[in-house]
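Thread: flavin-adenine dinucleotide complex, take 2
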Amino acid sequence: MNEYEIAIIGGGASGLYLAAALGKGKKTVIIERGARVGKKLSATGNGQGNVANAKAGAEHYFTDDARLLSSVLERAPVERVLSAFNGLFATDEQGRIYPAGRQASSLTDCLRRKCDRSGVKTLVETRVTGLEKGFLIHTDKGVITADKAVFCAGGKAQKQFGTDGAAFDLVRALGHKVTPLFPSLVQLKTNTEYIKTLKGIRAECAVTALCGDKVLKTTRGDVIFTEYGVSGNAIFTLSSYVTDRRGCTLSLEFLPDVSESELVADIEKKKRAGYDGGELLALTLNNQIGRAVIRYADSDDARAIARAVKNFRLDVSGTLGFDYAQVTRGGVPLAEVTDNLESRLVKGLYFAGEALNADGECGGYNLHWAFASALRVADALTK
Ligand SMILES: Cc1cc2nc3c(=O)[nH]c(=O)nc-3n(C[C@H](O)[C@H](O)[C@H](O)COP(=O)(O)OP(=O)(O)OC[C@H]3O[C@@H](n4cnc5c(N)ncnc54)[C@H](O)[C@@H]3O)c2cc1C
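Output below.
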């Protein structure tokens, strides 16, 4: 007889949520390599915990199986996802949902409390090193046995939270594939020729990501110029679209609400007033950005400068990498799990969270997936 009915590998967002959802009925253990559970969950949303998105739907995710992903989300509508937490939530105009108290650690505390009350055993500082059917779970503290195992070990983003991608070897050893991994929701490296002088400056832009001539996505938001390229919420959003491609370009449109002809008229007026070449966008744009745009236009023609304001291009050369990314593109393909997120290769092995090949855009979609997939597994294990 095994020690536990259910062993959850990884005490992050999905593992904790699953254990809380399983409740008292099951003899459950969470095995977490870190010193405490929910460390990443407590750091989400700049510490404010963007816990879900009211608009969550397959169109906001990247996966190999949109049908299965949709069905998981449909059975976990926002109200059901949030009902696991005792407390009030607030939704902003982009559908981003936060605890009303804006404290991510309160989400962790709530789930931990539920687990404690249900008698869930939590082992911290215990790293799973091997997984055998049956299940024999080898750890650096000894072997644990369980009837069922749920792989909630996350992806490869930000290893300081215990997620360095090494855990994928546990399921590779059981025959599972892991699709190529890429950092997503991350800063982008670009050519810096025209933005060297802009370090630390923030601008509200409409930004389009292109691959060749193909438009991948347009979004509007903050762009922050850095020594390596660009950051900011618009860039995080677009990183999802470019991370696994080569030859991508960003087209920044400064002043998206001002027309090109208005800009031309403004520049002509300044010329008539005797402004120097480098000052033709003074007052209209931040001074340093204005000078950079004029350098990029490489002309004092008003139309060329106005076009540069509307289409300031940066070539993407890469991302800042997994150490800075919020989420991992790739993982165990959804094609290798059933509708209940049970392995098609190993009976009794389930998956939830970022370990699966499903990542979302910026805005609460990734925690939403972690919780919705955990709910799907909880439903399967308690039916
Ligand atoms: C800084 C930051 C901010 C974020 N903000 C948001 C946000 O506001 N909204 C949003 O939707 N998403 C956000 N995300 C993404 C979101 O946090 C993750 O997608 C989510 O936590 C994934 O849940 P998970 O349970 O799959 O993995 P994780 O929460 O990463 O948990 C995996 C756990 O498994 C443990 N583990 C790994 N290997 C082993 C092993 N061998 N043995 C034992 N334990 C192991 C790890 O230590 C870790 O605790 C953010 C991510 C980061 C890094």
